[in-house]
């Protein structure tokens, strides 16, 4: 804003100088000078004519005519003092009003029609960008009011105009567009962010979410590929499974939707307020498949860590269900991100290892839980583990991870 006022002052000063420049020069009126030059030329020409007329005998009183010519020339020369005084008066009379007029019109018209209040608000909004961005990125980002969303959009577009290589800025702009259901803007912004930072999980997830809302099959296929990459990573965001479940349900792949929602339940545990909502979603998908809700058997396992366990956050959690005699070969097994503890996971027939031997066929069983630190299920050296007592199907299962191979 300071640069604007400095530039405006410079422009006003230049304008005043341009108007006043012709009157600043210290010389007589140019018209008077031209007249003097013309009179001198006329005097010389007339003298030459008188010489020729005298030689031809046409003029007898040459000297008197020359005197008269000199007198008429002197009478036509203006007073230099008067010319200088008139010039000085005319210069001040024009420069002062011109200066006042330029300054008054310039700033008066700007404050009247120049949207100075909007410019000041724009500057304030741009300065408030970090605070608005942090509020959007926080879990309470949806609490942004409509005015705050508009301010954030304006500030982001201003920043991206000057910093087009800011991947985070494009990501934020895409999230705002998603909140406003502006699919085209969301896809365009997320695409720019993905082009600048293709390895960022946040960018990949946001881009997949935007593409999932598109009506174009090509966009939706690209979204599934992005989600597929995210699922293969060590830590998978809960929103990835939510998008996969939504997509599966929309494609009427209800079995896949149930599986993804079941994984989400395992990740958050029954103490989370979203658990019941996911249960209703699973029941609805099962109804769509023609299944009777509640007849399928499942195993719910509550897992906790002993105090001495120090697990790598990048490790995986392997949960396996075995026959009651503790046979090494599991009947069902599942792998999860480590997450936080205590937590609850649920296994059902979808986790069975063999097609002809379902988890629901067991009357009694035991559960083993292991923290896999290297990603290879065949190696166990240094891994922490725990196992349950033999229990009957339908009974709760608790496992404490407290031992190490």
Automatic annotation (TrEMBL):
Ranges in a coiled coil: 33-60
InterPro entries: C-type_cytochrome_biogenesis (IPR051263), Cyt_c_biogenesis_CcmI (IPR017560), Ig_CycH (IPR056412), TPR-like_helical_dom_sf (IPR011990), TPR_CcmH_CycH (IPR056413), TPR_rpt (IPR019734)
GO biological process, one term: cytochrome complex assembly
Keyword Membrane carried by entry: yes
PROSITE patterns xrefs: TPR (PS50005)
Residues covered by the Cytochrome c-type biogenesis protein H Ig-like domain: 299-402
Keywords, comma-separated and alphabetical: Coiled coil, Cytochrome c-type biogenesis, Lyase, Membrane, Repeat, TPR repeat, Transmembrane, Transmembrane helix
UniProt entry tagged with the keyword rRNA-binding: no
UniProt GO molecular function: lyase activity
Subcellular location field: Cell envelope
This protein's GO CC annotations: cell envelope; plasma membrane
Name of the featured protein: Cytochrome C heme lyase
Origin organism lineage: Bacteria, Pseudomonadati, Pseudomonadota, Gammaproteobacteria, Vibrionales
């Amino acid at each position: 804003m300071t640069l604007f006022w400095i530039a405006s002052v410079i422009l006003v000063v230049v304008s005043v100088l341009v108007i006043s420049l012709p009157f600043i020069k210290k010389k007589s009126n140019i018209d008077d000078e031209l007249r003097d030059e013309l009179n001198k030329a006329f005097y010389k020409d007339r003298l030459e004519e008188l010489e020729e007329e005298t030689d031809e005998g046409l003029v007898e009183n040459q000297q008197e005519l020359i005197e008269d010519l000199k007198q008429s020339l002197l009478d036509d020369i203006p007073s230099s003092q008067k010319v200088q005084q008139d010039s000085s008066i005319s210069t001040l009379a024009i420069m002062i009003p011109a200066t006042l007029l330029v300054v008054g019109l310039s700033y008066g018209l700007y404050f009247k029609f120049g949207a100075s209040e909007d410019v000041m608000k724009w500057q304030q909004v741009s300065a408030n960008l970090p605070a608005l961005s942090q509020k959007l990125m926080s879990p309470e980002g949806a609490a942004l009011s409509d005015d705050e969303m508009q301010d954030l959009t304006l500030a982001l577009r201003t920043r991206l105009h000057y910093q087009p290589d800011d991947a985070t800025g494009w990501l934020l702009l895409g999230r705002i567009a998603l909140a406003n259901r502006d699919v085209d803007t969301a896809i365009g912004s997320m695409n720019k962010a993905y082009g600048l930072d293709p390895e960022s999980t946040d960018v990949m997830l946001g881009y997949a979410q935007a593409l999932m809302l598109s009506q174009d099959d090509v966009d939706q296929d690209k979204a599934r590929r992005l989600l597929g990459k995210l699922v293969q990573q060590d830590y998978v965001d809960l929103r990835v499974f939510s998008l996969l479940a939504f997509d599966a349900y929309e494609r009427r792949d209800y079995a896949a939707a149930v599986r993804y929602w079941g994984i989400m339940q395992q990740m958050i545990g029954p103490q989370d307020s979203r658990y019941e909502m996911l249960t209703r979603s699973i029941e609805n998908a099962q109804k769509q498949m023609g299944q009777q809700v509640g007849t399928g058997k499942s195993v719910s396992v509550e897992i906790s860590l002993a105090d001495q366990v120090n697990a790598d956050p990048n490790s995986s959690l392997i949960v396996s269900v075995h026959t009651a005699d503790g046979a090494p070969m599991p009947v069902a097994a599942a792998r999860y991100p480590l997450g936080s503890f205590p937590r609850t996971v649920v296994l059902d027939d979808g986790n069975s290892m063999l097609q002809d031997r379902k988890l629901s066929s067991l009357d009694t069983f035991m559960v083993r839980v292991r923290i896999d630190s290297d990603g290879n299920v065949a190696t166990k050296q240094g891994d922490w583990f725990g196992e349950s007592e033999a229990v009957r199907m339908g009974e709760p299962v608790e496992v404490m991870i407290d031992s190490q191979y």
